[in-house]
Structures are given as structure tokens and as C-alpha cells.
Specification:
This protein is 45% helix and 10% strand. It is mainly alpha-helical. The strands form five sheets. The protein has a three-stranded antiparallel β-sheet. Helix 3 packs across helix 5 and helix 7 runs parallel beside helix 11. It is globular, with a radius of gyration of 26 Å.
Length: 498
Amino acid sequence: MMQTLSHFSESPWQANIWNIQIPTSGKNAKISFPSIHGLDADILRATALAFLVQCASAEAAQRVVREGAYFLSYLSKAGIPIENIRTSVVNQYINHLRDLDIGVSQKNSRIRSACSLYETCVENLAYEWYTDAVDFSYRFSEPAGKRRAPDKSVMDALDKAFFDLSYEEIPTVIRLTYFLLRLIPNRISEVLAISLECLSYPELGLFSVSIPTAKETPLHIPRYTQYVFSMDGKTESIFYRLLREQQDTVRSWAGLDATDVDYLLFDAARGRALTANDFNTFLDKFIHEHHIFDENGDFPVVTSHDFRHVCIGERLRSGVYSPEQTMKEANHSNVDVTLSYGYQSKHDEAKHLGSISSVVLKSDFMVADQENTAPRQRVNPVKYDRLQNNTAYIRIIPGCGLCSDSKCIPQYEKCAFCDGFTPDKLYMEYFTEAREIIQKRILKFMKSNSSPEAIAFEKKQLEIINAYITKMTDAQKRNDTTIDFRYDDTEALSYGTA
């Protein structure tokens, strides 16, 4: 292990601080160890080294050291050597974490780190006898919220306040959390687990933020999703400013040996990482103090989970993101779960997803017209049967069309260029509107002398949208079988083309 460490650092094995250089990136970093001695100290260092070797990340190694040291301290107080732990001890530790006033993301990080320490023991034969497997699989989760978004009037009022930096009563850490929840569809537990070093700059004029997901690598490290933003956008530029300001604040506390300083959303006022309860409590107080009411004239109950529904619903209605793409970003198990997030507010269940949900291919699906009781936009079963008979394999890409390539993983960026994709012309207007929006954005960027990279990014999005429009238009000119989900009783008796 000392020889392996020499590839990353000249620091001695037992040093309290390892000065690290990551060979793949050339970055310099430090890994600090607590005052732990004996076998526990070696286990902690061996685990950190494993993270360095397999992840090339000093940041991940530092977090497993800090959260793992907490587990070792717990065992020490209980008089239990780590090599003697059993599942019953882990369950006691979970109950201990349950009572702590820390966020779900941090509780799960401590369980993952404890598991990594245990696996280090097993892999390095720290046990003198074979034992039954120890179960570290438990994960805390946020309480499930109602699958509704707040009324639009409520979100408009909140957006107006939180996007306006003149509201000095809103702490930076709370405002930044609001921006993160509004701009990305991740869960609150994932947002609160964002690392301090989450910000990167892939190209001039753009910045990206890495968000951990609930999925884990074999080393119990969360997998990451990267979101790219333009620095030239009004909202995005404020977002970038808040990110940098929050990073500077947390780094100023790092020198004081405060805990949780490797989390971006470290709350200096509380001296710990922010929790979902902290955010929700502030939001409720803000709503009452500023007299924000819902459409019924009542004070709305808005929670962090509601923002996930807002963000996903906006993506589904935008016409730019397909439900399949949104499903991946939201880390849902299937697209049906994603579509269930499409309520625009708590008072419009009857308008669930609008025409987006009309792509669900069920013969008994219909959306009732408020002015006319006759069904509309209903799937034509005969037409769909014809499409099914054209190939032995076919599946739905909601919001886009049908895929007949069994070996393909549908992706919004690629489907329009694939011969196995059949577009749904019902969504022509969505793509047309999206094209106009992006064209205006490119023109705005060009007039304001934005970076070439930012303009190139928008042009790439425009290229994808144009490909969808072209495929739909060309298919109609050829009198081809583009899908039309609008119901026509006369066509139900024949196989007419779309």
C-alpha cells in the first residue's frame, strides 16, 4: 500500500495529511486524517487509497475518510472493533443516524462509507475468521410528497423573489438551493449531496454542474449527472454567481476545521450541511411573511419535492425535451413515472400533461373536450396495428414517435437521424416552436458578442430539432406512415396513410 501511495504522494503512510497529485488530471489536493491510531487508522488510509486508485478523486477519498471516521468513532464508543461487527451492529448504527439532525444525503454517505471500511477489512484479511455477510444496503429517503406542482401563480411569486438578488433576507445557501431545484430535475437528497468542487468549465462561455444520483458505483460512490449551462443567460448568470459565492464561503470555513465543508450547500449559519427540512421551513416562513396565496386564497404548502415536479413538468411541456430524455435526467425507472409528474398545478388534474399524455398507445385512452363530449386525440387502433405489423419489434418513444430497432437505446439526440425511427407529426408544432425559441436565442447571443462556444452549443440543439422537423416533413411528402395520434372515425375502417 505504501508503494501504491507513492504514485500519488510523497507523504508518509501515517502522516496526518497526504499531499496528493492526481496523475490523470495533474491536480493537487490534500487528504486530511483524524487522530485515529492502530488498525482503525490503517483501515481508514487503505480505504482512502482504494478511492484514489479506482476513482482518481481526492475529493471522494476525503469524504470517505470523514464519514468513515464517524463510524469508527461510533464503534469505539460502543467498544466494538470494526473486525467484529455484524448486521445487528449496522442496524444499531442506522438507528443512531436516524436520530441525528443531518440531511438524508449525509446519512446515506455515512452508511456507504461504513460499508467501504468494512469491505477494506474483508479484502485485506483483517478478520481472523469467516463471518456471515454484513448488510449495509439500507438507504434513507425523503418522505414521498404529493405528485402535484404548486399553482403557477405561487411559482411565479416565488421565482420573482428568489431570482431577484435585492431580496437580501434570502441566505445565499437557500437561494442557491432554490436555483438548483428549479433548473435540474434531481431529488432534493441528491441536490444536498452536491460536492463543493461540482463546478467545471468544459468550454468558454459555458459552465457545468455535476450532480450525484441515487445510483452507486461498486465502491459505493454516487454516479454523477452533468448539466451544462450558458453563462450568458439571465437566470444562468445569476446561478453561476451564486455557485461561486457559495464556494468561496464554504472554503473560508474549511480553514477552521468545520465539518461538512466538502458539501457545496454547507450552511455557515448552522455550521453544518443544509437539510431538506431547513429549506422547507424557510420556504414556508417566506410564503407567510410575503402573503403568497394559491388559487383558492390559502397559504400554499410548498416543499422541495414540489420543485422536482415543476422542473419535470416544464420539460415535458417544453417540446424540446422528450419524456425519454427527461426520464433519464430524473433517474426514473420508467417513462410512466415521468409522465405522472406532468401536472401543471394542484388544480388542473384534468389537463394532465395536455397532449403529451396522448402518446400513450392504449385503445381506450382519450382526453375529453370540455366543450364537446366527443373524444379527441385518441389513438387509432387500426393505424397502430398496421405499424406493428411492419416489424417484429416496435416500441414507443413518448413525445417523438416509434422505434423499430431492437438493438437501439432511444436517445433524443440520435433518434431523428435513425432509419428505425418513425416520427409522430402531432408534435410538429412543438418542435417548430422550439426552433423559433433557439433561433431567437442564437440571434441574441450573436448580437451580444457571446462566446463562439455558447453559440455553437445552441446551433447543435437547433440541428437536432431541424432533423426532427425534416424527418416529419419528408415523410408526409412521401405519403409515408408517419404516426398521427389524432382520432378519425372514418380511418378506423381502413388502413389509410397518415
